[in-house]
Structures
1.
Amino acid sequence: MSTAQGTEVGSDQDQVGILERTDEDAWDAFVQHCPEATFFHRAGWRRILEQRLGHRSYYLYSERAGTITGVLPLGQVKSLLFGNALISVPFCVYGGVAAQDQQAADSLTAAARALAEDLQVDYLELRHRERRNPDWPCKDELYVTFRKPIDPDSEKNLQAIPRKQRAMVRKGIKNGLQSARDPDVERFFRIYADSVHRLGTPVFPKGYLQALRDEFGTDCDVTTVTKDGEPVSSVLSFYFREEVLPYYGGGTTAARALAGFDFLYWEVMRRACEQGYRWFDYGRSKRGTGSFSFKKNWGFEPQPLYYEYHLVRAKQVPEINPLNPKYRLFIAGWKRLPLVVANRLGPWLARRIG
């Protein structure tokens, strides 16, 4: 595959090319109607990866008789700390092949493998919600997703929450918490940066978070919860087809006692329901973590995610996650950094994790 010129490769029936700016509308039209596609397959993520996070992208599409039959967005993340990887999609919980049939999927997968070999990356990682390549090494026990239909009636959604968790939502209401949509990421970023610092995680650049709002417009918003006018918790959410996906969230040290997290996610669900959305996607969690337990307490059943790997230079599947003992000392040390230092260093590091 000659990626520099975007030379087409594939079978006689399916040609695989690299997305050009002028073809983004056709790409997004396919994503909008393909059942396998997700919010993270949208072409706007390419600009985010390249312009805000500084990574090279290769957005592959298959075409048959002049019509797009599948897409595979790829980003290359290179780091001295974490290696050199080709991922679909970096910084996103879902990705991988989205195709109308197996022929298109096979063409895209073959092209991605060829690209990974040409680039001599450590590995190719495809983030699927279903097993696609059973002969590839796979992580299917570490990450899960939580997705559930929501009823058109808000009260029915409240009653569907298990009793103990529903009591926490009501506690937030009794505590006088209020929610509002924010026009920018200012309040969100302050809360989020402090929250991830306490977890020992580098924070993303504020410009990246604002760029998500600017790129996706009304399909990306911020909900912030306050107590007597003081911010308590906040979340940045995505909207795609009939789904709402609360994606980046955080809370102050007071949030837990006030049921600020519980009230926050209920408000996102309630507002989405009233706007006609019919699926709530709680996103990715690692088994054995607090976020996993929190989401399960809402009555959501964990569904495995299949992160599949084609190894190129790497000898084994990477273990870049906080549960890896190798990174626990780093996490403990990061928590001890002054917040102002963590906020200065964090964006440089976070954009290299992927």
2.
Amino acid sequence: MTFFTKQTQTLDRHLTSSILVPSAALLSFGTISIILFIPLYDRIIVPVVCKISKTPSGITMLQRVGTGIAVSLLSMVVAALVEMKRLKTAREYGLVDQPDATIPMSLWWVVPQYVLIGIADVFTVVGLQEFFYDQMPDSMRSLGLALYLSILGIGAFVSSILISCIDKITSSNGETWFSNNLNRAHLDYFYWLLAGLTAFELMLFIYFSRGYVYKKKVNAL
């Protein structure tokens, strides 16, 4: 998300001649998409899917998580394509060596990737929370929620390590993917790498989740 913000900072962020949108303000699109998508999912998508799957929840908890991973993959593909467009525009207008120049592209180009990240959270994060709470033994539900939160923490560490390794490897060639001058950086390569890793993750998730047996509910008398 930090790179999304840096991307946005190079674009034309004027809504009108006098209103300039702060680049970090676009993070709100992720939150807005979550707020809008949850009732849409609950009131429209679930009832439709219920009629097809014949299950009360529409899709299982693990299917919900898997759907979120797929949407996350889509968000990385969109982000990579938008960054390729941004770099191409910078070259066309001779702005490659002007890191502080405004690229003649509207901020609306990056909104879809923020929205997709928000939708992915609705599926994945909420699905994981539900899964760890529902499938743990009753006496260990607090531990289940702790395990759910640990996933986010581990992800943050892995992200930092990945960025550090990529920066070290690519900077040895004199052209780091994360140059301070984004017009000479290659965030598009990084997004494509994340898309590939997410696709691999999705395949592993599908493989292992297919064998999971859900805990049976015992109705109280």
